[in-house]
Each structure stands twice: as structure tokens, then as C-alpha cells.
Design goal:
mainly alpha, two-stranded antiparallel sheet, about 50% helix, elongated
Amino acid sequence: MTVDEYGQVYLSQQDVLNNLYADPSYDIGTTFVYEDEEIKKHSQYCKHFDIAKLTTPSMPDMDPIEYHKLLSSDWQMPDEYKNLDVHYICRNKLETLGLVDARYEAILEDELHEFAKRDMMHILRFMCYMVKVVNENDIVTGVGRGSSVSSLVLYLIGVHHIDPIKYNLSYKEFLR
């Protein structure tokens, strides 16, 4: 399996077979595959037996970065989250946790600046929404995973439960 610069996933013949063996109801008609001679043969047989063809995606007619900006411009979340003030949420959480001191505040400001510089505030807003949905539905989550636990912002919005300052973790590990 590979993912192209547009985020489209391509499966090899072996990936498709593995999916079919794992789940016989797997819908291969929604699968993108590498086009090779075997896939061309398969497509010809599909016509004769009236079964779904494996497809190759058409490439968007735009730069990959612009494509991703377009996709992320309308996240499927309530309007109240689309302009959420993440800075305000994080500052309130610092106060609630009793963590208001110069070190936390400086790191919070630096990290939020880095998120904004990378045009990722919409992702943080979406994460606030997802944390709310997870909590409201009593969905069990882990303590944290990977480099995300080095992010103070993700800790404050509830994505993970590790205080990165307490353990001297740098958010730069997460944002590199």
C-alpha cells in the first residue's frame, strides 16, 4: 500500500487479496489499485461477469498543498468550533489545572505560534470537537501515544493525558 501526495491510497494486488481473505464482503469497487497488466485483465473480466472494477483515481488538477487546503476548509464539525479560540481554551485549562507560571505560558505561546505558522489551527479546533465527542460518548482513550505527548497544546485540549512540561518533553518533537 502506498499513499500519494494527494492522500489517495493505492493497493497492490496482494493488498486486495489480503483484504478479500480477511473480509469476503470487502467492496473492491471502492479500492484504488496500481494499474498493471493483471488489473487490465481483471477489468476486462468484470464486464463479462458484471462485477465491480478496480479503479485508479484521477489526479486532481491542482497543486497537492492547495488540494489539502481545499479539503480541510470545510471540516465536518459544528460551526461553533470552526472559529474556536484555541488560545483561550488552553489558557483556561492552564488555570483550571493550576499550571499558570512563566514556563508553561512561554511554551504555550511558542507552540501555538508554531501551529499558526504551519496553518494548523483548524486541526486544533477539530481536535477540540473530537475530544468533546469522545468524552460525551464515554469512548475509552489511552494515556497518549508517540510524539503527540510532547505537545502542551494537545495536553490542554485533552487529546492526551501526559503533562509534557513535567516530563521535560519538547513540542518540537511533535512538530518537526
